[in-house]
């Protein structure tokens, strides 16, 4: 397959929307579970302070909900990484009908470019102050490729 043309590149808006959708899909259940695990814990702490009875351990309901939170984060991450590896898409990218392909041949790159380079290496570089902002602004280049696309040799196209 030939390399993708600029007319096949995904729009900035669809890429942003895909990222927002991924954050909502993973984040809303995580926040609900986090709040649900913190509420009983806070109640137990307040009760212990009010009554003077020492708090012994983590409240069982809070512990169970916290475990559900951890499991949700693991399941969501595995789903996202599996789709990135096999399809070049996250759930948000699927909903927005865009995908990641290799710039050289237009094919799905698989684990190394899509997960290792774009997600993990870019995430580590993201610890450098202001890197994330600079990476985002690269989308305004003519080819719409951010730094993480340049690192991985990828481009996001219409699916």
Key descriptive features of the protein:
single chain; 64% helix; 2 strands; two-stranded antiparallel sheet; mainly alpha; 159 residues
Structure description:
This protein has 159 residues and is mainly alpha-helical. The chain has one domain (6-158). The protein is 64% helix and 6% strand. The chain is built from 6 helices and 2 strands. The protein has helices at residues 12-51, 60-87, 91-96, 111-125, 131-137, 147-152, and strands spanning 98-102, 154-158. The chain has a two-stranded antiparallel sheet. The chain starts with 11 loop residues before the first helix and ends with a strand.
Task: Summarize the SSE layout with pairings.
Elements: H1 12-51, H2 60-87, H3 91-96, E1 98-102, H4 111-125, H5 131-137, H6 147-152, E2 154-158
Helix pairs in contact: 1-2, 2-4
């Amino acid at each position: 397959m030939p390399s993708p043309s600029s007319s096949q590149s995904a729009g900035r808006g669809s890429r942003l929307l895909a990222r927002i959708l991924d954050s909502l899909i993973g984040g809303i259940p995580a926040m609900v579970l986090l709040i649900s695990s913190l509420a009983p814990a806070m109640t137990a702490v307040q009760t212990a302070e009010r009554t003077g009875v020492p708090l012994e351990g983590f409240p069982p309901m809070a512990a169970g909900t916290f475990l559900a939170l951890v499991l949700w984060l693991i399941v969501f991450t595995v789903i996202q990484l599996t789709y990135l590896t096999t399809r070049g898409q996250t759930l948000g990218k699927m909903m927005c009908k865009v995908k990641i392909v290799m710039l050289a041949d237009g094919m799905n790159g698989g684990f190394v470019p899509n997960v290792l380079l774009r997600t993990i290496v870019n995430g580590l570089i993201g610890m450098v102050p202001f890197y994330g902002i600079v990476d985002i602004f690269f989308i305004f280049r003519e080819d719409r490729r951010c730094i993480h696309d340049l690192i991985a040799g990828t481009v996001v196209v219409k699916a």
